[in-house]
Amino acid sequence: SPLLPVVGQDLNAPLIHGGQVRYANLDYAASAPALEDVAAHLNEVLPYYASVHRGAGFASQVSTSVYENARKIVANFVGARPDDTVIFTRHTTDSLNLLAGCVQSILTQKGFTEGRSNVHGEVLYLDIEHHANLLPWQALPHRSVVAADSIAATLARVETQLRAGNVLLLAVTGASNVTGEVLPVNELAALAHRYGARIVVDAAQLAPHRRIDLSASGIDYLAFSGHKLYAPFGAGVLVGRSDWLDTGKPHLAGGGAVTEVRLESTRWSDGPARHEAGSPNVLGAATLAKAAATLAALDAQDWHSHEQQLREYLVAGFAAIEGVNVHSLFSDSADYPECGSIGVVNFSITGYDAGLVAAYLSAEHGVGVRDGKFCAHPLLNRLGLPSGSLRASFGVGSRLEDAQRLIEGVSALLRDGLGWDYVVDAGRWVP
Ligand code: PMP
């Protein structure tokens, strides 16, 4: 049974092959279904939906309080420090681009000093990053590190680069969106700080599955998206140390981000307002915060073991089928208590195109998985999967039966073949 109820999972729908199929959503890592209590909260807030911060009307006051309360809930969810800023963005990609803009400003702004010296340096990132945590840094002075086949060796490679000097910011993912493996972000934060660098963690995949504590870990910046956290699309967050954020170029220029505007010059606000010009996504922030509060109330042990059981079941099922290959990065995750894997299994089937398998699983078995290169081209190429692989991913709304259906679908493919012809239409396989 699921750990938490999610919207759109009709457990009573009949499971009929070739007719109405009970859909097994194994694509949570792309976008997770909304929690039922998130949907309920959306309905609660919807009647008071109004412009925030500037209106004196009742609905506007309620909306402002919902929006600012959401900020506090997010700060609690990630254990933010008192001087951290919580900025609502559109999604993780937006959050990381916002931070990159700030880094660019402080690198080019004369006189921005931290301690004794002017800030300078490069951004260091791993080759396993999602493009969202790679492309924004490519526009700045940067270096990259190829992850090794163990966490220990990867940490050593990162340390070598940090020791070489001139690293301003280490940008790493909290969990790989390709393999689901969790990175030792606390150790990476300590390492970055030892060499005078800051760290940003792309928590798009980590936040929906693990507790994160900025105060305890020292992580400087954190980015994640509502739509992977069991809330709807359209809202994300960037949380982190306010000095860079208050100095950086405003993410968007416009109303709400200023304290004073003259025809030729502008004084920008500090705090979140600096980067939140325009009418903000109140419903997005409120639902993201509701999801965060619900996850925060979970018993961590139940949370992790639910996903762990499903993952182990799926991996064991695949291991018993000849021709299925499960892909992962690190051989020594077990040596790192904070690591392991979130609810993701990456796999391929010998002799079958990944897109074809995904289309077959959807059409014949009602199973939704993702195929392709997962916006992580450098990693897929390095893993020898230049035409992509498949990813099954799950979370609090998933059932063992979903994983079972996937195993049965893959077995049926290898036993019976496709059943009918699939052709490529508009770049996708279709029956
Ligand atoms: N980072 C990681 C690790 C991701 O998995 C994703 C989404 N696939 C992103 C960043 C980008 O998230 P969004 O599309 O919500 O901006």
Tags for this entry?
431 residues; alpha/beta; Aspartate Aminotransferase, domain 1; Aspartate Aminotransferase, domain 2; 2 domains; seven-stranded mixed β-sheet; 13 helices; 36% helix; globular; binds 4'-deoxy-4'-aminopyridoxal-5'-phosphate
Kindly describe this structure.
With 431 residues, this protein is of the alpha/beta class. The protein folds into two domains: 24-30 and 299-430, Aspartate Aminotransferase, domain 1, CATH 3.90.1150; 40-296, 3-Layer(aba) Sandwich (Aspartate Aminotransferase, domain 2). It has helices spanning 36-45, 58-77, 92-108, 135-138, 151-163, 185-194, 214-217, 242-247, 282-296, 300-319, 354-365, 377-382, 400-416; strands at residues 24-25, 84-89, 113-114, 117-118, 122-126, 142-145, 167-173, 198-202, 221-225, 236-241, 258-261, 266-268, 324-327, 344-349, 367-368, 370-372, 389-393, 423-425, 428-430. The strands form six sheets. The chain has a seven-stranded mixed β-sheet, with helices on both faces. The longest helix is centred in the first third of the chain and has 20 residues, at 58-77. The protein is globular and about 70 Å long. The protein starts with 23 loop residues before the first strand and ends with a strand. The model has no long low-confidence stretch (mean pLDDT 93). The structure holds 4'-deoxy-4'-aminopyridoxal-5'-phosphate (PMP). Residues 91-93, 130, 132-133, 173, 177, 202, 204-205, 225, 227, 236, 375 line the site of 4'-deoxy-4'-aminopyridoxal-5'-phosphate (PMP). GO terms for molecular function: cysteine desulfurase activity. It comes from Arthrobacter glacialis. Residues 25-406 form the Aminotransferase class V domain. This is Cysteine desulfurase. InterPro entries: Aminotrans_V_dom (IPR000192), Aminotrans_V_PyrdxlP_BS (IPR020578), PyrdxlP-dep_Trfase (IPR015424), PyrdxlP-dep_Trfase_major (IPR015421), PyrdxlP-dep_Trfase_small (IPR015422).
